Amino acid sequence: MGKEKAGFLTPKAISNRIKAKGLQKLRWYCQMCQKQCRDANGFKCHVTSESHQRQLLLFGENPNRYVTDFSREFTMGFMDCLRHGSASKRVLANKIYQEYIKDRDHVHMNATHWSSLAGFVRYLGKTGRCHIEETEKGWYITYIDKNPETIKRQEAMKNKQKMELDDTDRANKFIEEQVQRAAAQLKQKTDVVYTELQRDEEEKVVINLGAPATAKPVASTATVPPPALRPAKKKSALDQIMESEEMIKETNNRKDNWLHEGIVVKVITKKLGDKYKGKKGVIREVIGKFGAVVKMLDSGDKIKVDQEHLETVIPGIGKIVLIVNGGYRNLKASLVEVNQKKFSCTVKISRGPLNGRILEGVPYEDLSKLHSS
Fold first, then answer.
1. Which residue has the higher pLDDT, 38 or 220?
2. Would you tell me how many other CB atoms lie within 10 Å of the CB of residue 353?
3. Are 346 and 360 in contact (CB under 8 A)?
C-alpha cells in the first residue's frame, strides 16, 4: 500500500501555508516569473526550469523596457504608500519602504534602476515628487501633492489669508491716522502763545482797597484742587476702540505654546543631567506644540526637551528679540529697556507694517533672544 496523503489540517500543511503567506528571503525571489522560492534548492530548481528560461529569452530581447516597467511600478507603489500613509507630513523614507514591502506581490528594488533606497530617494527629489532631507537618522521625505484640486484649495486658502491680512493692515493704518489726527488737534488746543505786556503811558492804575464784602471773588484767586483730587479724564471713543482692538488681538494670539525655531532658550531641568542645566541653546526644530530639538551653544549637542523644561532668554539692550506670545506674536523687535522690578521689557518693533511701534510692559516670558547665525 502506498503512503497516505497528508491531510489539509496536519501541522506540516498548516506550517507550509503560513510560510507561503508571509514574506520570504529576497535572494530566492524571481521578479520575471514573480515566483518566491522557500530555500536555495527550490530557487535552483526554478532557475533551471523551462518557464524561467523562456522568461529570460524575453528579457534578453529588450532588457531596458522590462527594467523601466519594473521601476515605474515600484515608484507608483511607493508613492501610493507615501500619499496614503503620511500625506504631506515629513516622514522617514525607510518607514514608507517597510510599509511598501509588506505586500507579498510588490516589485523588488533589485529589479529596478536603483540599487539602494538612498538612490531612489534622490531620484524622487530630483524629479520634484518629494522634498528630501538627509539627517543622521536617514533620509526624510515630504510628499508634494500636485493634484489640481489640492493646488486650487491651497491657492484659495492663501488668498483668504492675504485678504484677512490686508483688512488687518487697513484697520491698523486707519487707527494710526486717527491717533495722529487726535494728537495734532490736542497740540493745537494746548499751545499757548505768550505776548509782551502793552500799556498806554497815560493809563492810570487804580487800586481799590475798600471793596465791599459782597463783591464777587476775582477769578485769579479761585482755589484749584490738587491733581490727585481732580476727576479722571474721560476716554475718547478712539481710545476705547484702540483698547478693544488690543484686547481682541491679545485674546486671539495668546496661546499655551510659545516655542519658535531660531530663538535662544535656557534649560532649567535636572532630568537631563547637570551638564545641561542652566545652559543656553538654540531651537532647531519644533516637535508638535510643546516639544523641541535644542542645539546647545557651548557643546553643540542636540537634545529633545519639553517646553516646561525651558525658559526664555533676555538679551542686552539693542539686541533683536522675537515676541513669542501675546498680541504681537511672531514679530521681531529690538530691546529698548528692561524693568527688573516689574519683570517686563520695552521693545520697538523692527519689521512689518507696525515698524517703529513701541511696546511697553512686555513680560519676560513673552519674548526671547533671536539667534544670529
1. 38
2. 13
3. yes
For the cut 90, the answer to whether the pLDDT of residue 345 exceeds it is yes
Task: Determine the longest span between alpha carbons in the chain, in angstroms.
Answer: 161
Cα 157 to Cα 239: distance, rounded to the nearest angstrom: 34
Burial level of 141, CB count in 10 A (0-12/13-18/19+)?
buried
Give the C-alpha separation, 238 to 214, whole Å: 46
CATH of 314-373, one of 3.40.50.2300, 3.20.20.70, 2.30.30.30, 3.40.50.300: 2.30.30.30
Q: Is 135 exposed, middle or buried (0-12, 13-18, 19+ CB in 10 A)?
A: exposed
Is the Cβ–Cβ distance between 281 and 294 less than 8 Å?
yes
Cell 487800586 found at: 207
Least confident of 69-73, 225-229, 242-246: 225-229
Q: What is the pTM of this model?
A: 0.38
